[in-house]
Amino acid sequence: MAYTRGNLAVKEQTVERGQQSPRFRETTKVVTRRSPLPVREKLLYMVTVLFCVAVMGGLLWQNSNLYNIKRQMYNLDTEIQAMTVQIKEMSVQKEKLQEQIPQEAAKLGYVETSEEGFHIQIPANSQTEGSADEVTTAKK
């Protein structure tokens, strides 16, 4: 065997160069076949993937609930601000109407008395004793 460029596995070439080389060249292709995964390993991978999908689904569901709650809070804050503005407008309107009460009462013929308390006029039919024109005054 000849030692060719550091390789002992090289075929020796014959000295006869005059021979015709073969018409076809023999080539070999190395085919490696992977052995299929065992059933237990396949199940382990499938369970791992399903677990990851379940965890991600749970997180997504939780985030969607949080988003809905935050959206409801925002809507309620907006409604509270609108109601606060409406309450302020109504209180201003109430004060204006309270200032107009004495003027409207005077237009309708009501007179403010100088005495303090309630004034009740008792009708003539229901009175058994006393005169019909009697007015009763009660103190507050």
Automatic annotation (TrEMBL):
It comes from Paenibacillus vini. Residues 80-107 form a coiled coil. The chain crosses the membrane at residues 43-61. This is Cell division protein FtsL. Keywords: Coiled coil, Membrane, Transmembrane, Transmembrane helix. It comes from the Bacteria.
